[in-house]
Write a structure and sequence with these properties.
The chain is about 45% helix and about 15% strand. It has about 270 residues and is an alpha+beta fold. A six-stranded mixed beta sheet has the order 1-2-3-4-6-5.
Length: about 270
């Protein structure tokens, strides 16, 4: 595996791929070897990322750090092979780079990489895309739990979620047997109980919500606007109203309401 092969397999945007390869061809990755290896230790990821940013600064459009993330992702291909994890999951996981750049373009009209604060997980075997969902081996509350994440391109139908969960439990039993009986958690605005008054009871979101026991109502946050409305704008009056949920949420926040990122535990 090399960066060029990875870029091609994940269909990285051509204009980004050219810039990444130009940088990679003229950069000595040995100078950041420590930081990329530190990604492999969950507790060291944040510090390693800060160190990497300092070394690479200045970094227009974060092309340098994207190249380093891709290099780290290339390096862990050997770990995937050693654990017997197939290419289907590897490339599905690594397509996050292409997806994130597309998401940013839709929201800003610019083609650049801004999700480096998140992709340390994909670049270090801490997070895997398995079917519709992503699964992170997350260190929290002095234990490891499986954190569920919902990619923007996920098939959110109940059948797709069923298939993903079944496949994930099989995946961890086979490749990380120490986590076979691990707790599955999700932290999301999708768990705000107010959504039940905005959606029909047979909606995909309510179906997903009902799979979880909510153990913490969480914090009020506006991050959902980015995902529901595909914008970073804080002009709430201009938010689109293309779906009933968009309309209901817009009315809710314009009337002074808030949405909370709640914490859920998957029911057994």
């Amino acid at each position: 595996m090399d960066i060029l092969t990875l870029c091609n397999e994940i269909n990285l945007q051509p204009e980004i791929k050219i810039r990444v390869l130009n940088f990679a061809d003229n950069f000595n990755f040995d100078t950041v070897d420590k930081q990329l290896k530190d990604f492999l230790t969950y507790e060291k990821m944040s510090e390693a990322l800060i160190e990497l940013q300092t070394i690479l600064n200045p970094d227009e459009d974060n092309i340098k750090i994207l190249a380093c993330m891709l290099e780290a992702s290339v390096d862990i291909y050997d770990i995937y092979n050693e654990k017997g994890i197939g290419d289907e999951i590897y490339f599905a996981t690594m397509k996050c780079y292409t997806r994130f750049i597309d998401e940013t373009y839709k929201m800003t009209g610019r083609v650049y990489f801004d999700r480096y604060w998140w992709t340390t997980r994909q670049a270090s075997c801490h997070l895997f895309r398995i079917g519709a969902l992503e699964y992170e081996m997350k260190h929290t509350d002095e234990k490891v739990v499986i954190g569920l994440h919902i990619p923007s391109d996920a098939d959110f139908s109940p059948s797709a979620i069923d298939k993903s969960l079944t496949s994930a439990k099989k995946f961890f039993s086979e490749h990380y047997p120490e986590l076979a009986d691990c707790e599955y958690r999700c932290h999301s605005w999708l768990f705000d109980s107010q959504l039940k008054g905005m959606l029909s009871e047979n909606s995909n979101i309510i179906s997903f919500q009902n799979r979880f026991e909510i153990f913490d109502e969480g914090e009020a946050d506006t991050g959902f606007i980015e995902w529901l409305y595909n914008t970073k704008s804080t002009d709430y009056h201009s938010l689109p109203e293309n779906t009933s949920l968009q309309r209901n949420m817009k009315n809710h926040i314009l009337s002074g309401g808030a949405i909370r990122n709640a914490y859920g535990r998957l029911k057994q």
